[in-house]
Design brief:
The chain has 335 residues and is mainly alpha-helical. It has 13 helices and no strands. Helix 1 packs antiparallel against helix 8 and helix 3 runs parallel beside helix 5.
C-alpha cells in the first residue's frame, strides 16, 4: 500500500500548487467581480459544503474511496478550468459550486485512504507529511508567481489547471482500500445517525461554530488581506513574498508527529510542555514587538504624509516612504 501513500503525497503537492493563491482577490477583481460578490459566492459555497457533507459520506461508502477520490480530482480539475476562463460573477460562482462538491466529497476520503494504506503507528507521521506537502506545493507556486508570473493573472490560472490535471491523472493509479468489516450503510442506519446528530445540541453548535470559524479564517486570510496589502502600496511580487513566508510557517505540520510523541512520553511530558510554553511565549512576544514596530512605523509614515500634504508636497520624504520598495514592481483555497 506504499504506492497509495506516495500517490497521495504527490496529489497533495500538486493540488497545493495554486499559482494565483497570493492574488486570489485581485485575480477576481481583474475579471469584474466585486468584493461583495466574492463574499456572496463564498457564502453559497459554505452552505453547499454543509448540505453535501453527509450525503457524500453515504455515497463514498457505497461506491468506494478510490472512485470517490477519482471523481473529486477530475471535478477539481474541471473547476480550475472554469476559474481560468471565468470573466464575471456567473463563472466564478460555477467554479465555487463545483469546488463545494469536491470539498464535501474529499472530506475524510483522502484521510481514510492514507490511514488505511499505512501502518497504524505511522499514521500521524503520514498525515503530517501529507499536509506539509500541500503547503509545500503552495509555497512552490507562490515562488513561481512572485519570480516569473507577476502580473499575468491568466497565466497563473493556466498553470494551476495543469497542476490539477496532473493530480487527476495520478488519482487513476490509486488502489481501492476499505476498513475491515465495513459494510454499506443502510437507509435506517443513515436516518438514525442523522437524527442523533440533529438532536445533539452541543454537537450542532460545535459544527456551526467550526464552519463559521473556518469561513471567517478563509475570508480574512485569503481575500480581505490582499486588499489591505494593496492599500499599503504593495505590488504583486511583494504580496507573493509575504504569502511565501506565511506558507513556510504552514509546513511546520510535518513536526506534528514528533510533537505528539514527545508530549506522549511520561518522562518528558512535563518538561516538554514547559519548554513549549516558554518557546511559544517568546514567539508571541516577538510577534507582538514586530506588530508594535510596524504600527509605529505606519503611524510615523501617516503623520509625515499628512504633514507633507499640508505643506503642498505630493509625497513624504525620507525613510518612511514605504511605497518606494514596491515602485520597481508592476502592478488569494488556498483561493
Amino acid at each position: 500500500m506504499k504506492r497509495n501513500i506516495y500517490l497521495m503525497y504527490a496529489i497533495a503537492f500538486l493540488q497545493g500548487m495554486v499559482f494565483y493563491g497570493s492574488v486570489a482577490t485581485l485575480y477576481r477583481q481583474a475579471q469584474g467581480v466585486s468584493v461583495f460578490q466574492i463574499t456572496v459566492i463564498e457564502s453559497i459555497s459554505l452552505i453547499l459544503c454543509i448540505l453535501l457533507e453527509v450525503v457524500w459520506g453515504v455515497v463514498a461508502d457505497r461506491i468506494g474511496y478510490k472512485k470517490t477520490m477519482i471523481f473529486c480530482c477530475v471535478l477539481y480539475f474541471i473547476s480550475k478550468i472554469i476559474f481560468w476562463r471565468a470573466s464575471g460573477f456567473a463563472g466564478f460562482l460555477a467554479e465555487r459550486i463545483l469546488l463545494s462538491i469536491v470539498a464535501a466529497g474529499m472530506s475524510g476520503v483522502d484521510a481514510s485512504i492514507l490511514y488505511l494504506s499505512c501502518k497504524k503507528e505511522d499514521s500521524q507521521r503520514a498525515f503530517g507529511i501529507y499536509n506539509s506537502l500541500g503547503m509545500a506545493g503552495l509555497l512552490a507556486a507562490a515562488a513561481v508567481f512572485s519570480i516569473f508570473v507577476r502580473d499575468d493573472y491568466r497565466l497563473s490560472g493556466l498553470l494551476t489547471v495543469i497542476s490539477y490535471g496532473m493530480a487527476a491523472v495520478l488519482s487513476l493509479a490509486l488502489t481501492d482500500v476499505s476498513p475491515e468489516g465495513s459494510g454499506r450503510i443502510s437507509k435506517v442506519g443513515f436516518r438514525q445517525v442523522l437524527s442523533q446528530t440533529l438532536s445533539d445540541r452541543n454537537l450542532l453548535l460545535f459544527l456551526v461554530g467550526a464552519a463559521f470559524l473556518n469561513e471567517t479564517h478563509q475570508t480574512v486570510t485569503v481575500f480581505l488581506n490582499q486588499l489591505q496589502y494593496e492599500k499599503c502600496g504593495l505590488g504583486n511580487t511583494a504580496i507573493g513574498s509575504i504569502f511565501i513566508i506565511a506558507t513556510l510557517l504552514g509546513t511546520c505540520g510535518a513536526a506534528s508527529a514528533w510533537v505528539y510523541k514527545a508530549d506522549g512520553e511520561p518522562g518528558r511530558r512535563s518538561r516538554f510542555r514547559r519548554d513549549s510554553r516558554s518557546f511559544l511565549h517568546n514567539i508571541g512576544c516577538g510577534a507582538d514587538c514586530a506588530a508594535v514596530s510596524l504600527w509605529d512605523s505606519g503611524a510615523a509614515y501617516l503623520e509625515q504624509s499628512v504633514s507633507a500634504l499640508s505643506d503642498g508636497n505630493t509625497e513624504p520624504e525620507g525613510s518612511y516612504r514605504i511605497s518606494c520598495y514596491c515602485a520597481e514592481y508592476p502592478c488569494y483555497d488556498t483561493g
